[in-house]
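Submission sheet (multi-component)
Chains listed below:
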Amino acid sequence: MSDHSRTIRAIIAEDEIPSLNLLKKQLLSVWPDLDIVGEAENGMEAKQMIEELRPDCAFLDIKMPGLSGMEVARRTAGICRVVFITAYDQYAVDAFDNEAVDYILKPATEERLTRTVNRIKAQIYSKSPIANISETLEKLMAKMNTQQPVQQYLQWVRAQVGDSISLVPVEKIYFFQARDKYTTVMTKNEEYLIRKTIVELDEELNPDLFFRIHRGTIVNARFIDKINTLPGSRGQLRLKDRPEVHTISRSYSNRFKQM
Amino acid sequence: VDNIEKKDIWRINRRFLYNYYPAWFLYSVLFSLLALTGPEADFSWFFVFNVATMFFALIIYLFIVIPIILFKPKKPYSRQITMLLFNLLFTAIFIIIDINFLNMFPSSGPAINYQEVFIMGFSVFGIGMLICWLYNIEETHFIIEDRIISERNKKLNNEKMITETYLRLLQAQIEPHFLFNTLTSIFSLTDTDLQKAKKMHNNFMQYIKTTLNKTRSSVTTIGQEVELIKAYLDIFKVRMGKRLQYSVEGDDEVKNLPFPSMLIQPIVENAIKHGLEPKIDGGGITIQIKKVEGDRIRWEIKDTGLGMSEMSHLGTGLSNVIERIEMLYGKDGSLKIKENQPSGVKVILEVPYV
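Outcome: structure written.
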């Protein structure tokens, strides 16, 4: 019980200064003897602060530059108790509720803050062990990533044009054609040369959107206009808005046979 | 859709009239009739005229029609080539018949019934032309039908695209994260910095007001678009503090030029969201607006953010802008996305302003 006199040390990590100031003010009004020992403006700072200052608890904004609040908590798991701060995000809120992770919604109401603070206080004074939430966090982060899928496919093609590098979104590319050491990239009206080979592109592009039709050709399926597949001979393919006729070689023609 | 069909039916009729097969068909019917009724003895003018016509036709085929078909950028259908060969064959047959007639004319062998020869020749040629004609009508129908379908699809697609784009525009402006974050910031400032809160509130009001108005009228001026962008950036300046700087440079003469609303804002939003907000030290946005040659306007939006990795997704905002430029300007509009030096993204947009 003597521990009740010990001041509890906390850090706050929040990249938006107005929100940080407000939270600080609100926290101090419901918890006057809280000692805020550090304020971090990004994830890296927060992680460093937790490791160096070893506070009793950390209020971590989820969305921060550098590292996200969840990543910070995962990497510093076991050091201190964590309360997440989140803006409007129904999905995150549901996920936290399901996993019984402490969080406050921005802007926090006083009752909500009081409830959270009381729970934290109780945990710290009762010296209950700090729950290892890293597994829970990993699970949560994986869930959130499937909600907003991490694209592992190529989205942009970088092409040197003069002395600058153009970024061509793959959605706008009609076809890729191998040419000597280079690959021609054709959009509706423009042509670019890149160093990436057809083999590399075939591996990196989303196979649902880009079809390899020949050893040296990949076409954007969205722009296919006509396909002629005559039995016994090689098929031909034409794209919308483009005059070229592409040959479908026999080894790549299987996917068109089902169409 | 009705318009397209009417127009295309007219096109079918026109093709029908300009066709040379019916002309050849009529030619053979007429000459068959002449041969049938004409005096048996006087065929000399008849064959001279016929040989001349046929040679003329052959020369036209060989030196004009065939080269045109062969050098057309769009390769002809195999059907058309078959028809042409048919045509040549019939013409050649006729010429051979005529030349035979020429060779036999002065000789005094057994009498040849020239009337029969001519009628036979004309019948073969006429029937051939009739076959070609019918074949061609069918082919024309086939092509026109194709064209009607593709044009109808294009139109439907375009309409669908417009609706979808506006839906997305609507979604973009009521993006819940932006709304909630901004309101939270304003709320936070009311306690600590009332002046700043008022200013931010004003900017927010202006942003919401203009974006809501803009779904109704899709054209504003460059000046208004700049005001919208400034309001948007000022909101982020409060939220991001020192981490964001921006500047807008533009001549006064461009201010009053008409411009599609919300065309640039998503580019700026993209720069903030994917470039500057996730960057620890933040950075700057520079916007330059210039009149360039050919009555065009050029926007250059540069940020010093994280930049695009080859795997980072083309945001809905940017792909929306690309689609709208295609829709509004077709080939006349261009949007280039480049890597900025030393970091970030540079977007260059060029469109005609008239």
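Remark: Chain B touches chain A at residues 73-75, 176-177, 179-181, 184-185, 187-189, 191-193, 196, 238-241, 243, 277-280, 282, 308-314, 318-319, 322, 331, 336-339, 341, 345-346 (CB under 8 Å).
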